[in-house]
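Work Package 4 report. The design task specified in the project plan requires that, given a folded chain encoded as structure tokens, an amino acid be chosen for each position. We show below one input record used in the internal validation round.
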């Protein structure tokens, strides 16, 4: 595995650059030159051995770390003076080519590769990526657009614990977005020629069109996601069901799908071609071309790139009678992908795909040896072994990012592999028939069979979701917990390969550390009492947490607002927020009291100014520590001078009301701009 350590060193350098916000580019470059020169001088000595050779190897790895930091900083778009973000001025128009289209209900999320900037009638060459939200169903991949809409950086999360969409876009090198009406953009032509991405997009759309006459609703959405990576049709309920049962990976085209395609192609070509060396090499080349065409059609995601690279090395190596270690293949794939785009290191799909293959390589054979089953039952146990090994490899990442564990993963994860094989095989055959001109009755058998298999798969997933205790929730599973669990899995792998007392003690010690940290973390670093005034459109929500339990104050709250904006922070606090109060009922609890228009939130007296329920303030403003403005209460309705205390204008207020309060009270906290207001009692 000669490439494993250098790739890990490169990843450490990229991570270091990210932690330093991609600054110190010149420092990384000078360090790379100095360390590399010293390592070269030591290696040129005659017969370097012993400690000198070890020191030289360490210097080489440190050189790669420094190079990774420089390379990631150099590839960071804001560090490039030619990026369009450095030249934006009022009235500037951008020219770009559509590279990705993701349809939505109201607008189409369109990714543009910017090629020029029109300023004062002159076109200046610039580059970068822009996410433009255009009217639905208006553009296709390859269109050249001229955009005149305002350009702005994407905003971060407005509520604690919520998904950071700006950081997600930054990992894809997108730092600006725009929302355009029909009058703010113009199609000026199409890109000349037929670039590979355009060919892939057109093939995907034609393939999808061949499925539409035979599948509907969730069946069509799941089939499109599983076969060609088209996930924009998936409903939230379907994605939640697959996630809760540990089968969500089947809805994202990944190494599983590429492996199935390579297996089908290899077996088919082996049947068609005679067993000669030249035909074996030709079959390997055709398999590689087919795999990369499939990767292109499905969007070239990180997992597909990794799998395609590995299949390329394995298939070509086998055709030349060469064997490769799986971790060396992983290193080759990771090296090429990080050279193409260093920020792929921080994409969850990239991490999960490599972790899954590593888990399969480490544990599959050991698990297969636990049980011996004769005949066809052996294949069933092999599938369970692969599914379990992949789950072990991805367990730390799954708990860290998603905070849940599917209890019946052996059942759902194993059978979903069988379903994926059937669906992908049928989908490929159906697409091939449509591609060669078959239509109507010729496509009816494959379309009908595909509809039946996908429908059965969906029924099975929803059945597994309804089983008792189908999902275990892990709240507060932080980075240190993930690192300790990763260390435990590594010790288990070492014990499986080299059983010894040292390995057993390492496993037991890591288990003790993980269990001890899990029990002591709430004691050593408990969440302090606090209250949070969220930013939620058209409503008010105040969560009060006294250190043990929580209570919510609100009038109304939609399920989507609760799921995406509120639950992430509640889960981090680890508190039960089943209790609920409204602003109209006088109540007194341990940490919260309501005597409208006054509230007591922990150690703060709060005054509520509500347009829908105006309070009698003729005798003056009471002595309070905080003012909360809701439901469009305007500062002009207040006849008294505001004291020098915090004023919070939450999301229930229209933007113009927030602007009026900002003009009246310069220090007003507007949640629409500054995010949720939190008060912590230390």
């Amino acid at each position: 595995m000669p490439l494993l350590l250098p790739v890990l060193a490169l990843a450490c350098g990229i991570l270091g650059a990210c932690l330093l916000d991609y600054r110190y580019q010149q420092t990384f470059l000078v360090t790379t030159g100095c360390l590399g020169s010293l390592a070269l001088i030591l290696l040129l000595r005659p017969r370097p051995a012993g400690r000198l050779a070890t020191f030289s190897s360490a210097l080489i790895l440190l050189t790669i770390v420094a190079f990774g930091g420089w390379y990631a900083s150099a590839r960071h778009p804001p560090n490039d003076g030619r990026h369009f973000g450095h030249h934006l001025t009022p009235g500037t128009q951008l020219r770009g080519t559509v590279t990705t289209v993701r349809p939505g209900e109201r607008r189409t999320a369109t990714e543009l590769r910017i090629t020029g900037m029109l300023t004062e009638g002159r076109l200046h060459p610039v580059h970068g990526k822009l996410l433009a939200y255009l009217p639905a169903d208006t553009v296709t991949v390859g269109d050249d657009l001229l955009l005149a809409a305002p350009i702005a950086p994407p905003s971060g999360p407005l509520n604690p614990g919520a998904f950071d969409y700006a950081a997600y876009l930054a990992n894809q090198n997108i730092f600006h977005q725009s929302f355009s009406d029909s009058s703010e953009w113009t199609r000026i032509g199409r890109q000349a020629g037929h670039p590979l991405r355009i060919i892939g997009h057109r093939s995907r759309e034609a393939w999808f069109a061949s499925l539409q006459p035979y599948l509907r609703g969730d069946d069509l959405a799941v089939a499109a996601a599983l076969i060609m990576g088209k996930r924009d049709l998936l409903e939230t309920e379907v994605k939640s069901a697959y996630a809760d049962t540990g089968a969500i990976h089947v809805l994202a085209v990944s190494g599983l799908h590429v492996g199935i395609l390579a297996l089908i192609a290899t077996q088919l070509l082996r049947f068609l071609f005679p067993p000669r060396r030249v035909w074996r090499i030709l079959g390997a080349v055709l398999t590689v071309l087919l795999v990369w065409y499939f990767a292109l059609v499905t969007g070239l995601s990180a997992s597909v790139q990794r799998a395609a690279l590995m299949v390329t090395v394995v298939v070509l190596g086998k055709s030349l009678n060469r064997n490769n270690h799986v971790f060396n293949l992983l290193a080759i794939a990771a090296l090429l992908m990080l050279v193409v785009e260093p920020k792929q290191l921080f994409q969850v799909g990239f991490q999960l795909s490599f972790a899954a293959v590593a888990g399969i390589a480490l544990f599959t054979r050991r698990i297969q040896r636990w049980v011996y089953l004769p005949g066809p039952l052996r294949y069933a146990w092999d599938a369970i072994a692969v599914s379990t090994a992949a789950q072990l490899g991805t367990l730390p990442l799954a708990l860290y990012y998603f905070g849940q564990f599917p209890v019946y993963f052996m059942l759902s994860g194993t059978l979903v592999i069988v379903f994926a094989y059937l669906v992908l095989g049928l989908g490929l055959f159906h697409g091939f028939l449509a591609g060669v001109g078959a239509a109507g009755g010729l496509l009816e058998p494959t379309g009908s069979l595909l509809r039946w298999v996908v429908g059965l798969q969906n029924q099975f997933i929803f059945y597994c979701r309804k089983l008792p205790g189908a999902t275990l929730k892990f709240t507060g599973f932080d980075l240190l917990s993930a690192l300790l669990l990763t260390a435990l899995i590594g010790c288990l792998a070492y014990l499986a390969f080299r059983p010894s007392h040292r390995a057993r003690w390492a496993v037991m010690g890591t288990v003790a550390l993980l269990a001890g940290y899990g029990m002591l973390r709430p004691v050593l670093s408990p969440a302090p009492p606090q209250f949070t005034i969220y930013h939620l459109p058209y409503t008010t929500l105040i969560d009060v947490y006294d250190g043990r339990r929580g209570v919510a104050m609100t009038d109304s709250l939609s399920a989507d607002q609760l799921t995406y904006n509120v639950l992430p922070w509640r889960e981090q606090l680890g508190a039960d927020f089943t209790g609920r109060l409204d602003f109209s009922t006088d109540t007194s609890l341990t940490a919260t009291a309501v005597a409208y228009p006054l509230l007591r939130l922990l150690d703060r007296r709060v005054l509520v100014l509500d347009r829908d329920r105006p309070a009698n303030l003729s005798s003056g403003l009471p002595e309070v520590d905080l003012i909360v403005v809701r439901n469009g209460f305007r500062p002009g309705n207040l006849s008294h001078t505001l004291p020098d205390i915090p004023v919070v204008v939450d999301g229930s207020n229209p933007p113009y009301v927030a602007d009026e309060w900002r003009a009246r009270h310069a220090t007003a906290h507007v949640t629409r701009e500054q995010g949720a207001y939190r008060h912590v009692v230390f």
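The CA atoms of residues 570 and 577 lie 8 Å apart. Validation will be extended to a larger panel in the next phase.
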